[in-house]
Write a structure and sequence with these properties.
The chain is an alpha+beta fold. The protein has two helices and eight strands.
């Protein structure tokens, strides 16, 4: 039995750079079987901490363009895990954990350190039909303006 915190490792490995595409494919396969059209993941980080805040699953839109929110299915998912260093490896995990892992890995590869200092926030939108993920990332920046004044008397 697999839990959120202890995925079961398999023997297949892949280069870390390939992990987001492999993870996305695994998530899309489960989502299609559950009638999920879109997944929206929001995250926020600052002060050396960061986390996924929400995962919203949406079904097909109705004639008015409104997509219903769906519950998270309690389903197993064969996905990929990425250690701090090294290659990705295939794991048996849950669908919910696979989504979290994908979000964290995409952030690690494109915006490493997103949780440091003033941090960053954003949204990962996964279009299941197109099998495409778009990461919209915003970095918080504190600006400093320096002025020099000089007087002579």
């Amino acid at each position: 039995m697999t839990t959120d915190t202890q995925p079961t490792a398999r023997l297949r490995t892949a280069p870390r750079d390939d992990a987001p595409s492999l993870m996305l494919a695994a998530i899309c396969a489960v989502a299609v079987r559950n009638g999920i059209n879109t997944i929206v993941v929001t995250y926020d980080g600052y002060g050396d901490e960061g986390q996924i805040h929400s995962v919203v699953l949406q079904g097909p839109a109705d004639e008015y363009g409104t997509a219903p929110e769906l519950p998270m299915p309690a389903m197993p998912c064969t996905s990929w895990s990425v250690p701090f260093r090294g290659d990705a490896f295939e794991v048996d995990t849950t669908f919910a954990q696979a989504i979290d892992d994908l979000g964290i890995e995409m952030l690690a590869q494109k915006h490493n350190g997103w949780e440091d200092g003033e941090g960053a926030f954003g949204e990962l939108t996964i279009d299941i039909t197109a099998r495409k993920a778009v990461l919209e990332h915003s970095v918080r920046i504190i600006e400093t303006e320096c002025f020099t004044h000089e007087w002579e008397g």
